[in-house]
Write a structure and sequence with these properties.
alpha/beta; Nucleotidyltransferase, domain 5; 2 domains; 5-stranded mixed sheet; globular; binds adenosine-5'-triphosphate; binds magnesium ion
Length: about 350
């Protein structure tokens, strides 16, 4: 079983052998936080407390298993919101102790990577091949990681300021498109006919990213065009956005996608990997997926969109690998709000 409560999704899942999904229950708080234009940590913790028992119960029921069928309980121990993480970790500890099941702590970012190993019943298993290059593009992170084997990671680059998902969220908020920004920007961008030109921060000679300059350029352009709506919540219908909003959204998305794809492909060539893996919420973006598939020098693997955003099946899949190595946690396991993905390259 996997349990995930690091941000605004309360999730539990049952996965067999780290690949086969038997259940994947996700209770999203997104509508609650949308009122405030972003995640409110205290509200998130309280919602997790309300949701965690029904979510875990449903995950067991949908999988048609009982506690005695489970070989381990994996839970996200970081990174994330401290109060939110604590709900999942304490639940997992109680269940593991009460039912005599091994407890495994999982790094949420490593979990995102393992979404690439998951399949539904009846689907062929196509396990990624090592060495591979993982782009983790999410709400809080943009990491480029070389993976040479299970649990063998080297952090090649990361964002120096905003994460890609964070930039989507901020730009959407400024333009009155609501929260979360990624899906609504994608929808609005599709209706753009002449994408607004925006600069790209290439940071040549490094595998790092930077999105705050782009974000500022978009906000400035939106202001010049009179389409700034900070603080007013969602006020534009994404089905019928004004042409200028659609063009700014399209130009912004194009710039983010261009940088993510170009830098990932460059690193894939340099490190001679056999495959590129996408993960994290931004990997749900259709434009990113198709551009990466088109331009990658090696085969691309990306999870279905529902497994790109936060879920517990990926935590179970990752926890399974740790369990195979005998990496169980003690009862004094803590939460680690700033847990990094991996050591940086020398
Ligand atoms: N279709 C999409 N296009 C672009 N961005 C998207 C899309 N769908 C979701 N996102 C973005 O993905 C982010 C959410 O992803 P995820 O759930 O992995 O982040 P998180 O768990 O909050 O952060 P982290 O994983 O870094 O701790 C949000 O910033 C959201 O705007
Ligand atoms: Mg996440």
């Amino acid at each position: 079983m996997g349990i995930e409560t690091s941000c605004d999704e309360t999730a539990a899942a049952v996965v067999e052998n780290g690949v086969l999904i038997h259940s994947n229950v996700i209770s999203s708080q997104v509508e609650i936080h949308a009122r405030y234009g972003g995640v409110v940590p205290e509200v998130a913790s309280r919602q997790h407390i309300l949701q965690i028992v029904p979510v875990v119960t449903l995950a067991l029921e949908e999988a048609g298993v009982t506690w005695s069928d489970l070989e381990g309980i994996a839970v996200t121990k970081g990174p994330g919101l401290a109060g939110a993480l604590l709900v999942g970790v304490n639940m997992a500890k109680a269940l593991a102790l009460g039912h005599g099941i091994p407890l495994v702590g999982v790094n949420h970012l490593e979990g995102h990577v393992y979404a690439n190993w998951l399949v539904d019943a009846g689907q062929d298993v196509q396990e990624p091949e090592f060495p591979c290059l993982c782009l983790i593009a999410s709400g809080g992170h943009t990491d480029l990681v070389l993976m040479k084997g299970h649990g063998d990671y080297t952090l090649l680059g990361r964002t120096r300021d905003d994460a890609a998902g964070e930039a989507f969220d901020k730009v959407a908020r400024v333009m009155g498109l609501g929260y979360p920004g990624g899906p609504v920007i994608e929808r609005v961008a599709r209706q753009g006919t002449s994408p607004h030109p925006f600069p790209r921060a290439w940071l040549r000679g490094t595998d790092d990213f930077s999105f705050s300059g782009l974000k500022t350029a978009v906000i400035r352009a939106a202001r010049d065009l009179g389409i700034v709506a900070e603080g007013e919540g969602a006020r534009i219908d994404p089905a019928q956005p004004p042409a200028q909003v659609a063009d700014v959204a399209a130009g912004f998305q194009e710039a983010v996608v261009d940088v993510l794809v170009e830098k990932t492909c460059h690193a894939a060539r340099r490190w001679e990997v056999g495959q590129v893996l996408l993960s994290g919420g931004v990997a749900a973006n259709g434009s990113l997926r198709s551009a990466m598939a088109r331009r990658s020098p090696v085969p691309l693997h990306c999870p279905p969109p529902i497994l790109c955003t936060d879920n517990a099946a990926m935590i179970a899949a990752c926890g399974y690998r740790h369990l195979l190595k005998g990496e169980e946690e003690d009862w004094d396991m803590e939460v680690y709000p700033n847990l990094p993905m991996a050591p940086a390259v020398a």
